[in-house]
Amino acid sequence: MGAAVARWTVAAVLLQVAGLSLFLYGFFPVKPTLRGFSGTESYRMPSCGLVSAGEQEPALPPDQLRSLYGELFGMPPVYDRLVLMVIDGLPAEFVLGRGGKPPSKEMMESMPYTQSLLAGCKAVGYHAKAAPPTVTMPRLKAMVSGAIGGFLDVAFNFNTQAFLEDNLLDQLHRIGRKLVMLGDETWIKLFPTLFARQDGVSSFYVRDTVEVDFNVSRHLEFELAAKDWTVLVLHYLGLDHVGHIGGRRSVLMTQKMKEMDDVIRRVHAASLQDNLERTLLVVVSDHGMTEGGNHGGSSYEETDSLALFIGHSVDRPHCSPYDQNEALQVDLAPTLALLFGVPIPKNNIGVLLRELLNSLTDDQKLRTLELNSWQILRLLQAQIPAFCLEDCINSEHGLEIDVHPESIEKKLCQLLSKAFASHQYSRVHQGFDFKSAEARYIGIAVDNYYGFLRYASEWLSHKATDKPFYLLISAILLMTMSCLCLMGTVSRVFNGQSLSQADHHSESYLNQHWHLDEVFILTGIFLYVISLGSSSFVEEEQYTWNFLTSTLYLIFLIKTVQSMLKGSSSTLVHRAEGESSDGNKELTPGKRDGYKLCTVLIVLVAGRVIRAWHQGGINWVHFPDISKLLAQADSSIVKFLQTISVLAVVALYSVSLMLLRARSKVLIGVWLSHISCGLLVLLHIWEDQINTTLPINHSTTSTARLFYAIASVSISATLLASPWIFPVYSTEAKPASSDSNPVKDTDSCGISNSVFLTGITYTMFWCLLQLLLQQPINAIPLLLIFLQTVSSVAHFSLDKTLHKQWVQVIAMLFLGMAGHFGLGNTNSLASIDVAGAFIGISSYSTVLSGILMFTITYGSPLMLYLGMVVYISVNNTDDISTARQLTWSYILDKMVTLPCLLPLLINSVALTSYTIVLLLMRNHLFVWSVFSPKYLYVCAATVCTYVGVLIIAMTTIYTCAVFSFRAKSYRDKFH
Amino acid sequence: MRAEATQISAFTTAAAHALCFAGLAVAHSLAGRGILVSDPALALRLLVVCEAPVVIAVFSYLRRDPRSCSFFKAAARGLIGLPVGAFLNAFGAIVLGAPVGIKYWTVTIYWSLLMSLFTFVPAACVFGTSKIDWQNVLSHSIYFTPTDIENYMISAPCHGAVLGAWLGAWPMPLDWERPWQEWPICVTYGAVAGHLVGMVVSWVLIAVHKRSGRAKAD
Ligand SMILES: [Zn+2]
Ligand SMILES: [Zn+2]
């Protein structure tokens, strides 16, 4: 049976990996982004072949760079000053109407000045479609960079919120322009060093609709009078807050819009005072809002954001301002870049807005479009490696060819060559022909450029946001299949077990009907899966796990009390049973009951303290807890607690080695190395206290490295050596073994002792490693989790009939999850401890620090997996020693099947159900802020499960293999 | 089934439960609507004060061994059982995550006294120190195997109260910002609701048990 189970399990795991990677690929597309900033090369035609990233240009001083750009561009900047006014959450509908109709009369009247500008053709407005997620920070990034970022870009930048990609503001800063920012502090998070003057307001207090905007407007008079800035960013949050409180039809809305209109009037009036009219006022909103005032999803109401331009280049004699004038939010970046004479940001997928170029000559118009096309072409080359302009031109001749191209590549090729060819054509015919003909050629060239740009932009943006639905569905199907596969395997194992149990044990009481703890576990897992569908429960998952785990252990407590009541009422039976199962341990039933009770109580009380240590979660994270208390207290208290934890772990290891009652050099060696590791951790703790000012300290780095070396050597030595030091056959059985069935007399004690030694070594060294890496405040929770592990194992080994084996395994898994949140982890990426990931690493290495980060974050579940090795060793001795047909494969089967299968099954259930939840929630308001980060955690938990199960399986298999080899050679010697 | 145990009828059970329910109803009418949300300590105190004498009196009257144990002895058992049960309930609640701040102490004490009246005190009054009966209260086997009417009477409402309180705690961490999400308001609602459901379940069980018993007799 064992081989079949193993085969099915491996198949299920492979299916799961395949499904998971398919889903990740489909749901979080990673688009190749170009690194670095656009420079002078953006004024040259992109060459074919590989895009060489190494061409570093000498860094020019800002003034020289500015004149160089001007020279290469061939025209002066259209504007000198930019006022970028962001009105958070303003739907374009409020200003521009919808479907060709002007907005309602009420809305028109609440923005009189803006409407008069629109009606007088002094302004041009667009419905600038925003890409989901329609929340502020990604939208601001899209506006300044012209790129639509994927979720993973956000997720993997968790150590800094600063925006590192090429963008408009950095480009302006590079040519020496001065920037000023007033408003939402998101800008300061994105660009911490860019602004010459800044005043950030927090968007945290959503209830406040007045102060947030007053704090921006109070600087307005000073800044409008100041002449030193080139870019003034004004970000007004009030309207968004009005929406969050009262929805679109809030009574405060018109009032707030009047206020915004007033700001527009003031800024425009100030810009008109410069006689040259060299100021461009851009009024944009980052996203719209639903009827109820929320945003984040992808409905029309949320994505319908405004882009309104007020400046001399949009003036025109005739216009119809309420036409549905569609654009993309990303179009802002290339338009502003070219209007201000800087290169277009590298990853831009936006297209120049046509009306903004009204004041340019035809030549200049074509030049800007050419630059935009070159930039998009560079981006295309990054997406389609073989894409090349020259090939396109060579393959197509003339303007007339208009066959239906079969592939997107061909289509792009055709459009591109058509655009460049018509540009060339108009250039050649300049001056020769009549004016009307020239204008016609230019018109054709402009249209061809736009044809290419729009098509390419659309294709690029779809590539960034499209979720291939069928791919996702098939990924989920794969995962479901794997889940069902695991379930089938587990049920087969259970059936096999109950059959064999019926053979051996007469006590059918165990299988009679479901027990409370078993029913509870199934209900609990069901409730947990249901709770994953609610964003609030996902945010506050620590409550769920703590609640479920404590309830499970309370049920254990009740069962223990119950068995005590039963035991004392029928002492005789119990004593007989106790004597038979105890064998070597001299425990009276009373004492044993006491221990059973104590161990459960330890787990419960420790769990409560862990719960109180970190408040955790998202919403109530500011509530008082023990860690905040300690952070305020003297740091020596924390050091003291750390020291206590280290000493306790070292002492416990010595005690548990003593329990083995074996004298061996290996044992002493491991013991000494553990003590030295403990000393190293202590040293690290105390060194840290002396040098807290230095971020990377060389002596602490070497201490940590020494720790890694000693720990890894002693763990692998223990693993390799432990099966060899314990006897294969017990000494009493030796004489008999020569004639009777030799396998039967195998001393199962030897094998469990050796697994015990390996397991306890794993666990204890893991504890020390965690004490080294985790934040100092987490020392006591770590110790408590460790105590919980040990107590659970002790409890389960004291009375093996009280709970079924699968209940015990799942109880340990629950403890691991509760501990995971007890160490301060949450379901937001912000709680990942980045500082600890660099302990002992001198140079930056993504892989190493990633492993350390994983170790820190999943310290608790992994500790329970390592504890499971100890559990295997102490829990299966009876089953094995009483079994009749004792073979090595049978022992292996007994030991390893459930502890490996159940974690995989539980994880598979959680993963599959959460994947389905994520697919269903893909348009939910919180999909990017709550559900997607949680999905990354679920994926990491899957990796954690694989690692844990692999360790358990490998250790037991290796030990069993060595024992069977030794038994065989022993038999051969005696026959 | 024990021969010496006085068989109490289904009607007695219903009457006892009705009296307990009346105690709760009186407390509720005295407190007025919504007081549990606005002043949980006061409401819980009222509930405990009204319910305690009723529960102790009713279940001491229904004690299992009326010949060897006087009414007052049973009542004394109930009085001792009240703080003991409160301690156990408070332990369970705190382990499950009930807040331990000083400002919660009074409500936690009152709540656990109330839970003790729902769970521990009736059993203490009726069963005394009979281990086998206590074991029956703790187990859920009464729902599958026929047993004494007392067991049904005591166990089902007790289990109902605990289960209701447990379920009532689920909305607590949610960010709905409702006043009733505070400890121990929704837990109390859950406990009372579960207790009442448990009473109904116990009647149903007794009725089913009776019918099957009669069928067996025929
Ligand atoms: Zn916003
Ligand atoms: Zn908002």
UniProtKB/TrEMBL annotation, chain A:
Q: Which SUPFAM superfamilies match?
A: Alkaline phosphatase-like
User: Membrane topology type, per the record?
Assistant: Multi-pass membrane protein
> What are the residue boundaries of the GPI ethanolamine phosphate transferase 2 C-terminal domain, all occurrences included?
518-958
Cellular localisation: Endoplasmic reticulum membrane
Q: Name one Pfam family in it.
A: Phosphodiest
Which keywords annotate this record? Endoplasmic reticulum, Glycoprotein, GPI-anchor biosynthesis, Membrane, Transferase, Transmembrane, Transmembrane helix
The protein's predominant localisation is endoplasmic reticulum
| CDD domains recorded | GPI_EPT_2 (cd16024)
Q: Does the keyword DNA repair apply?
A: no
Which molecular-function annotations from GO does this UniProt entry contain? CP2 mannose-ethanolamine phosphotransferase activity
Spell out the GO cellular component terms annotated for this protein, sorted alphabetically and separated by semicolons: endoplasmic reticulum membrane
Pathway involvement of the protein, from the record: Glycolipid biosynthesis; glycosylphosphatidylinositol-anchor biosynthesis
Q: Which GO terms describe its biological process?
A: GPI anchor biosynthetic process
Show the InterPro entries listed in the entry: Alkaline_phosphatase_core_sf, Phosphodiest/P_Trfase, PIG-G_N, PIGG/GPI7, PIGG/GPI7_C
Family of this protein: Belongs to the PIGG/PIGN/PIGO family. PIGG subfamily.
Output this protein's name.
GPI ethanolamine phosphate transferase 2 C-terminal domain-containing protein
Protein's organism: Setaria italica
Phylogenetic lineage: Eukaryota, Viridiplantae, Streptophyta, Embryophyta, Tracheophyta
Gene symbol here is LOC101783009
From TrEMBL, chain B:
Instruction: Quote the pathway field.
Output: Glycolipid biosynthesis; glycosylphosphatidylinositol-anchor biosynthesis
Q: Enumerate the transmembrane spans.
A: 43-62, 74-97, 109-128, 149-169, 189-208
Q: How does it sit in the membrane?
A: Multi-pass membrane protein
Does Transmembrane appear among the keywords? yes
Q: Which GO terms describe its biological process?
A: GPI anchor biosynthetic process
Keywords recorded for this protein, A-Z: Endoplasmic reticulum, GPI-anchor biosynthesis, Membrane, Transmembrane, Transmembrane helix
Kindly list the places in or outside the cell where this protein is found, as annotated in its UniProt entry.
Endoplasmic reticulum membrane
Annotated Gene Ontology cellular component terms = endoplasmic reticulum membrane
Highest taxon of the lineage: Eukaryota
Q: Which Pfam families match?
A: PIG-F
User: What is the predominant subcellular site recorded for this chain?
Assistant: endoplasmic reticulum
Endoplasmic reticulum: present as a keyword of the record? yes
Q: Spell out the protein name for this chain.
A: Glycosylphosphatidylinositol anchor biosynthesis protein 11
Gene transcribed to yield this protein = LOC101753394
